[in-house]
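Example pasted here:
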Amino acid sequence: MPAASHAPLAPATDTPTITPIRLALPDPLPVYFYVPDAAKIAGIGLSTMWLAVNSGEIESVKLRGRVLIPTIPFLRMFGIEPTPVVVERAND
């Protein structure tokens, strides 16, 4: 029986391949996210997000019974630096 021929394997490298992630961010960015929205953006479950919020791993503020996650600190956790946009108001 003849030996099966296989294509040679690619040489191993020490450089890992980095796959960019895509976050579904609203445009324009809000000042804060609600916890369920932040969980969707981060790609984690709601209960995991609540654990992170309650443990202080994710910065949050409570306003009239609502837990809000400030957008800029949240995005910085993922290495995203939002670019500020200056909006000029029309003269009335």
Observations:
- The helical segments are 35-42, 46-55, 71-76.
- Residues 32-76 form one domain.
- The two ends are 89 Å apart (CA to CA).
